[in-house]
Amino acid sequence: MSGNATLFSKIKKKKYGSVTFGDNKVGKIVGIGKNGKDPSKSLENVYLVEGLKFNLLSISQLCDKGNDVIFNSSHCIVQNVHDKNIVLYGPRIDNVYALSLSSVSPNKLSCLKASLDETWLWHCRLGHASMHTIEKLSKHDLVRGLLSYKFEKDRICDACVKGKQVCSSFKPKKRVSTTRPLELLHMDLCGPIPIRSLKGSSYILVIVDDFSRFTWVSFLKEKNEAFYEFLKLCKQLQVYKNAPIASIRSDHSREFDYKEFTSFCNDFGISHNFSAPRTP
User: Fold this and answer.
1) From its phi and psi, is residue 161 left (phi > 0), alpha (psi between -120 and 50) or beta?
2) Which residues lie closer than 8 Å to 14 by C-beta, 6 or more apart?
3) Is 13 or 42 the better-scoring residue by pLDDT?
4) Which domains, from first to last, does the chain contain?
5) At 22, is the secondary structure helix, strand, or coil?
6) More confident residue, 37 or 146
7) Exposed end of the chain (fewer CB within 10 Å): N or C?
8) What's the rounded Cα separation, in Å, for the pair 204 and 193?
9) For the chain, what percentages of helix, strand and coil (3-state, to nearest 5) are there?
10) Do 189 and 223 touch, CB atoms closer than 8 A?
11) pLDDT digits over 91-135, tens only?
């Protein structure tokens, strides 16, 4: 419990009853919240008591958090049960043991409260590094503000799972699927390019013949010119080569997947295939 409202990082003002001190004086509880601005050194469910001039810490709560509290004639030590690290140290002043986080040497200081979210918060801060790596950083005191947490991979990080997923690669083709030129044309549009060409073009239309790998490149000023450029090239190829275009393949971009393009393919019997999203 504390009487200083400025020490609370979060507080809910509400009357929660009262507490009785050793001299039978009564203090009203006017709020409850989180004490401490640093999340690694904070205490939750702390009472704000009206008129209280000291900050009092419950020994039973320290023990419930997995600590041993040792008192002698000169000082008090709060020690973690599992790893025997010193959590808090406080000298005896008259008849009171004063605990101060600033009085503990950094190499012996462990956090009083390390929740699951705080360890995973450091995992995100350090670029989703492994818990083993973060524990080594903490052990050698290489990161400022990183205390002696117990870093365990006790759950799955969604961002790490998505980042490490890989697509199954397609099997390499040992032979060409098509049997003649213009049987299948691949096409895609590149742009807009930030710097325009000398004639003001910002887009590049690329068409590749699957059989011969011959490539046509057209420079466009606007994206909607892609259909008319393909229309012109389509008629020229069928006249010069005297062979019809059987099918074309593109992505689902709006310059390829719209009404006029579909009507043209239907009129000339061209099969228009679309590739799967993000799968070239």
Assistant:
1) alpha
2) 30, 31, 32
3) 13
4) 1-56 (no CATH), 59-111 (no CATH), 116-164 (no CATH), 184-274 (3.30.420.10)
5) coil
6) 146
7) C
8) 9
9) 25, 25, 50
10) yes
11) 888 888 887 654 444 444 444 444 446 777 777 888 888 888 888
Q: Which of 67-76, 102-111, 234-243 has the highest mean pLDDT?
A: 67-76
Strands 184-190 and 247-250: parallel
Count of all residues that appear for the chain in the document: 280
The rounded mean pLDDT for the chain is 78
Contacts of 271 (CB under 8 A, 6+ apart): 246, 247, 248, 265
- Two tokens, residue 99: 């605990």
Residues 2 and 56 sit within 8 Å (Cβ to Cβ): yes
Whole-number Å distance between alpha carbons of 59 and 157? 35
Residue 144 has pLDDT above 70, yes or no: yes
Beta pairing class for 67-71 and 247-250: unpaired
| Dihedral, CA of residue 47, residue 51, residue 53 and residue 57, to nearest 10 | -20
Q: Which residue has the tokens 């041993």?
A: 68
Rounded CA separation 216/129 (Å): 46
The H or E element that residue 73 is part of is none
